[in-house]
Amino acid sequence: MVTRAKRPAIFNRSSGTRASPSREPVRVMGVTGLEPSRFPRMLRRISLHAPFRFALGVLCAAAVWGAIEAKQEHPAPTTPAAPERQRKFVSEGTGGKTLEIAAGPGSIIGKDELILKEYVDIKYGDTRLQADFVRYLPATKDVTALGNVIIDQGTSRLSAEKLTYNLDTETGVFYNARGYAEPSYYFEAQRVEKISKEEMVLRDATFTACTQPVPYWSFKVGHGLIRQDDYAYLHNLRFKIGHAVVFYTPYLVWPVKSDRASGLLFPEFGFSRRSGTVISNALYWAIRRNMDATFYLDYMSLAGYGNGLEYRYVPSENGRGYLTGYFIRDQIAKQEHAPGVPPNRWVINFGHNQAFGDGWHLVANANFISDFNYYRDFERDLRLSTNPQAVSNLFVTKTWGFYTLNLTGERREQLVNVAIQPVLDGSFFNTEEETITRWIEPKIELRGRRQRLGDSPFFITLESSADYFNKGTTDTQYGRLDLFPVLSSQLSPVPWLDVNASLGYRDTYYTKSQRSDLGCDNRPNTGDFGEGNGQTDTERDENQDGVFNAADDLGCDNLPGTGDFGEGNGVFDHENTLITDEGFNRHVYQGGLTVIGPKLSRVFDRPNSSFSPQYKSTIEPQVQYTYQSRVTDPERVIPFDEIDVINANSDQMTYSLVTRLYAKRPVGGTEELGALFGPANATFVSGGHYDPYAKLREALRKKQEEQKKAGEEGGAPPAATEGGKKRLSTVEIATFEISQDYSFLGPLSTSTALRPLGEPLQSNFGPIRATLRVNPSMHASLDVRSSYDILFREIHDASLSANLRSVKRGFLDLTWSLVRDLEGRALLARGLAFSPPLDQNQIGLQGETNFLGRRFLVGMQTNYELGSVNPGEPRLRDQRYRFGYNTQCCGFQLEVLNRNFVGSSNREFRFLINLKGVGNVVDFQSGSAGALPGTYPGIVP
């Protein structure tokens, strides 16, 4: 069995600097450990373990937390003191190589044999040999070395007690060899035979990443043949936890290639209440350097067999893509016959991203699914398990100067609940799930960024588009043209006053329009009851029994004996919307004026302050006026996106008072930037917990080192200092804003509860809004918002968001939101309501921290409803808890996920054990409802 991972390459002949004569902990030649794939993402973690991974992991956990012997580092070979004087010998070898020999007193240098003693140092080409005693035969280049033997080749190093070696053929035998292999393997072997430049034979060898005298875990190999940049053929492989052997295989093939290797991936195990015991198998195929594929075969004891594919490719330096798919003949769905859930269930996803020359860029995504219950049954991620749509789109973009051209096509498959048309003696309120498909085929959009018109003080921006829509029926295929230029200007007549003005015109043409308010016959100009009355007319449930019967079949006037359309026809009649071929042109004019000032400011010097030596406070009164013309016949617009929802005129003023506080703060370095990305090292060994910002953080660290080095070499001070002091920058650390709207057209605040027997209480003033933002550093932020209802004279809603970040300790996010039902409270106080008001009051907490030298990790994410809930609705919502423990060479993680919904809940567990330098040996997952282990290839990455 083999894996596709990048594995150690033995005896890498790369050149490098010569090693110093000191006896350091030795290295196996050119060993490079598990490295990330060159593709943008990993298919799944791979690890050096056996099919009984879960049992091994449990034993590993018991061994680590048990009383194993105290940890200590492997001792390095003793470094003898260099002699006061040495004898040197230099001669020419074959192939232009020079032989240099240095040895201590007592050495014998003869014509046919050299007996070298006391700190012997031999250099031949890129090979360097050091030992206490060496016998060298010049004629054959044979070497026999004893005592503290160290041999270096390029950047590789290996030590032994005894060595027989030929300098020309680079072959020989190492006895009681020891070394260190990248990324973190300790290596010991009773005998190592290098039989050629590309092949090596190991006998009685041990590999581990642990430094304890008795390693927590290790691999023992009886006999093995290793071929450089090929495979290792291992016999009698044993996996040990402490002294105990927990797994044995007589034969194993393991890749030692410097690149990916084709072969079987180790199986994964899990359990799901819905699908039963799950065994997932995979075959990896490294097709070429720029493409690979993984084939999946999964066994589910209850659901059946599943097959999957993931194909990844990199066609050029500026492009990459993937194709994933999964298919299962679901035995459970076959037996249940649930509506909308076929037995043949599948998902297909495709993605491609390509940059071309001259500003062209292409992005394509395609997502197709058999049924939307597939996500619920087979997807572990909450965001996807409740996903009600599958979207496919194509974007082609061209950018030049101030302009951007976008060509777009889209297919959107949406899951919706629709009412079932009632028949006689049928329910009024039955609904069913239905899938609708909508297309944009295609969309052409031209955008112009803000640019100055010549030397004038005016600027222009442009939005324009041409679309063709298809909503899945013949009547709903239509086109739309939209043009939206905006002319603006910015003036500052005095330093303390800013004036911004804008004027825009939007012209939108539709090739079709819709008609409504046609009466229950849904035909224009028939004079049917309800036509043109401005209301949506429908037959009612007269008996209020929830059943449509003859007593309800009265037509839309809901009066017996009038003979209006629909009365007594046995069909539930109601008004519908009719799509017509009549084109429609919509015109919208809009304008705006913003006045900021007079601006007031004051500077405060605080030279003794440790936070900032200087502060600046500003006060900015603002008045903003906006106007939008009335839209004629807005009900004729067929709605599709945000362009179509402009249906009401506006004539409104907003006045506000904004105060800001600025401070002089040190320019942020790598640590402050890293704090934005969460804990810098809250990860498990070798990938037990994925840090998505690790590459960016490492790039920032390297960039800072390069800048520091460049400054030192050029004799300039570091970039973050000026004259030996930290360079400071002005940043906004706090903002407070209070505002209110006033409408010149009609009321912005209305209440019927305050005047239940008369006209509603109204006001053209809107609620008073207040916002406070505090950002004292890149490690902390606070955002508080609230609105005050001027009619009820109470707080209507409020929210809080607080964030803390620490590079060393982790992060904490706190959110709180409150929406009060003031109308319901007023009705209840007057005895006009029979149920309590429904306030929404929710708090959310998400955080992660580590302690005791990053050995322990604790993380959580949860939401709790403090306000009103309906009967049966849980207060504690989506919850996720994570606990981790790291040792020097292995890590453990337990994750608990609990989702509470109205009428249902879902609980899942995940236990992971990771070996340093190897990967996950256990990734066990189980769930109480619809959870399968791992991320299946059919899910969008």
Key features of this structure:
single chain, 941 residues, mainly beta, lipopolysaccharide transport protein A fold, 27-stranded mixed beta barrel, 13-stranded antiparallel β-sheet, 53% strand, elongated, disordered N terminus
Task: Characterise this structure.
It is a single chain. With 941 residues, the chain is mainly β. Among the domains are: 53-261, Lipopolysaccharide (LPS) transport protein A like domain (lipopolysaccharide transport protein A fold); 662-927, no CATH class. The chain contains seven helices and 49 strands. The strands form six sheets. It has a 27-stranded mixed barrel. Strands 1, 2, 3, 4, 5, 6, 7, 8, 9, 10, 11, 12 and 13 form a 13-stranded antiparallel beta sheet that branches. The protein is elongated and about 125 Å long. It starts with 52 loop residues before the first helix and ends in a 14-residue tail after the last strand.
